[in-house]
Amino acid sequence: MSYSLKENLMREDRIAGGHRMCAGCGSPIAIRAVLRALNPEDRAVVCSATSCLEVSTFMYPYTSWKDSFIHNAFENAGATISGVETAYRALKKRGGLDDTYKFIAFGGDGGTYDIGFQSLSGAMERGHDMVYVCYDNEAYMNTGIQRSSSTPHFADTTTTPVGAVIPGKTQRKKDLTKIMAAHDIPYVAQTTFLGNFSDIGTKAHKAIYTEGPAFLNILAPCPRGWRYPSEQLIQVTKAAVESCVWPLYEVADGKYILNYKPKNKLPVIEYLKMQGRFRHMFKPGNEWMLEQAQQEVDRNWKELLIKCNEL
Amino acid sequence: MGIRERLSGNEAIAYAMKQINPDVMGAFPITPSTEIPQYFSTYVDNGEVDTEFIPVESEHSAMSTCIGAQAAGVRAISATSSCGLVYMTEMLYVAASDRLPITLAVSTRALSGPININNDHSDAMGVRDAGWIQLFAETNQEAYDNYLQAMRIGEAVSLPVMICQDGFITSHAIENIELAEDDKVRKFVGEYHPDNALLGRENPMSVGAFGMPCYYMECKRQQAQAMIDAKEVIRRVGEEFGAMTGRSYGLIEKYRMDDAEEAVVIMGSSAGTAKAAVDELRAEGKKAGLVKIRSFRPFPAEELVEALKNVKAFAAMDKDDSFNAHCGPMFAEIAAALYAAGETAPKGINYIYGLGGRDVRLESIRRVYAELEQIAATGKTGETYRYLDVRE
């Protein structure tokens, strides 16, 4: 299916406005883009891990979700939606249901990379016909910006504060997209929202309509945690892609495909300097951090190019 | 007339599941309940049921899949023991507050540590406040019978139900059992048509809201009411089951209590041993009686007060400990029930017994009755918090 922004925008929103997410937050943009990829005639059950998204969209007695929605806990969106999907198969088999339903789980990086990782891995391995979407904002934002295994090297968070001895997070970011690809599931993709939303829209549609388990990792910045002006959200995601900090690629049936190769790779400092969480890296004496950050991105990028047969 | 068989408690539960043919089972193996999903997946793979079996990667996910499936609008079941039950504890609370009548078979087992695979009630008692109905079985027959009643009870009040039996003691021991015919079982259990569901309804549904202080307490009050209402439902379903099988059930069972002066209150398989002790004591002319708790949640406060108000002394037998330097949970709740009812005459003591599979013999129970006789005669209870058959 070819992507059309116009056609996409004509579709009825499946998540209502008026939810309580912050201005300049990437999460609802990611969620809206994914849900727009559903064929309008299809029904869906959406699951959310406990997260900013959940507490901001389903505060009793109000729900922002126009499709059926289930929140269970922080660490089990994968298992929960796999239970719903299994019930669907049971009902279909017994002739109790005619409609077509699609099953989509959303989790932040805390609920996906960390506490919910086992549940996600199990659901993917079992082969449920579902999509797990991580909106990756690179820290536990709902509890107040604590580090996760997705937090980038050197980032300042409330549990990796820049101190006199330790300068922010001392570990590198976990590469979850590759770990999910290693599950050998039909479809894995890494994306974010840019330009006409073609990349995220196309990948979401593929993920939803590929039979079997699919995983989407969406970089979804958080203005509070990353400390950028809320109106600069799209500049931040663009810089992440142009600097190759967050490459756009997909793994379909085991084949790595690079979706975008910047003509002129943006230096990582251009991405880092937009965000308060990296401010300490620019202090005199910390040049080594900037150098190391660039080296790490270069290494990851090269490795990806090899996997994608681009080198 | 039912079908005569010889089955272990785990087999009996798996057989009941097969007869019911629920929609979804999510389960993870743990001793001593492992056989239940084993037997059941054989039924699935041989086409004897058309249930969807989800071989999850943990008990936490077992209960999570059950919550997803039951909320979707189907019957979901699982089985577990010990650490597995504790691991799914967080989800047990969610299942109850989401008002999802999931059925969970528990072959009760001690908790670590030290790690131990044998029976006591620490696992089930540890989750007694999770909002689940909890029925305990003395025998394989009762485990089977309770399981057949579980969905009728849970679905009537929208609460999940735990069907507990004693790990190894009944889960693995083979006993004679009378099974009900498939058609009777299906008719008795009926079909599940929830009012609201994630799937297949005109209106979509949102489940698992963020409840702020302005609503949270009303949710809890409704949950409390459902548990209160469950008492009558358990009685009614137990009578209806009796009409079908000749085996009726209530919240408690009284054994030779009519003129009893000393009573033991007990739960699970040791009730059988204690009944044998009562028979011996009665033969010796002693006024011994026994009260067996079948339903720990809801707690049969009125029934226990009625049963105990005329005894001189009773012992509450807890197969677990609260580690509160005071007493086990059963004693605490019985004492509270008597006090609230204004009954202060019966003298009560508490025994912690049978932990981690410690054998419970006739002599053990007879020692308890001997103590009760002393208390009845002197009116002095002495230490109320006691351990039975332990080296100190």
List its traits.
heterodimer, A: 311 residues, alpha/beta, eight-stranded mixed sheet, 12 helices, B: 392 residues, Rossmann fold, 2 domains, seven-stranded mixed sheet, six-stranded mixed sheet, 16 strands, 19% strand
Order of helices and strands of chain A: HHEHEHEHHEHEHEHHEEHH
How widely separated are the two ends of chain B? 51 Å
Number of domain units of chain B: 2
* Helix residue percentage of chain A: 25-40%
Strand content of chain A: 5-15%
The side-by-side strand order for the widest beta sheet of chain B comes to: 3-2-4-5-7-6-13
Question: Which word captures the global form of chain A?
Answer: globular
| Name of the CATH class of the largest domain in chain B | Alpha Beta
What oligomeric state do the depicted chains represent? heterodimer
Structural class of chain B: alpha/beta
Number of strands of chain B: 16
Give a verbal description of the structure.
The complex is a heterodimer of chains A (about 300) and B (about 400). Chain A has about 300 residues and is of the alpha/beta class. Chain A has helices at about 5-10, 25-35, 50-55, 75-95, 110-115, 115-125, 175-180, 200-210, 225, 235-240, 270, 285-305; strands at about 45-50, 70, 100-110, 130-135, 185-190, 215-220, 250, 255-260. Helices cover about 35% and strands about 15% of the residues of chain A. In chain A, β7 and β8 form a beta hairpin. The radius of gyration of chain A is 19 Å and the shape is globular. Chain A starts with a helix and ends with a helix. The mean pLDDT of chain A is about 95. Chain B is of the alpha/beta class. Chain B folds into two domains: about 5-245, 3-Layer(aba) Sandwich (Rossmann fold); about 250-385, Rossmann fold, CATH 3.40.50.920. In chain B, α1 crosses α7. Chain B is globular, with a radius of gyration of 21 Å. The termini of chain B are far apart. The model of chain B has no long low-confidence stretch (mean pLDDT about 100). The chains are: A alpha/beta (about 300), B alpha/beta (about 400). Chains A and B meet through β1, β2, α4 and α6 of A and β3, α3, α5 and β9 of B. β2 of chain A pairs parallel with β9 of chain B, so a sheet runs across the interface.
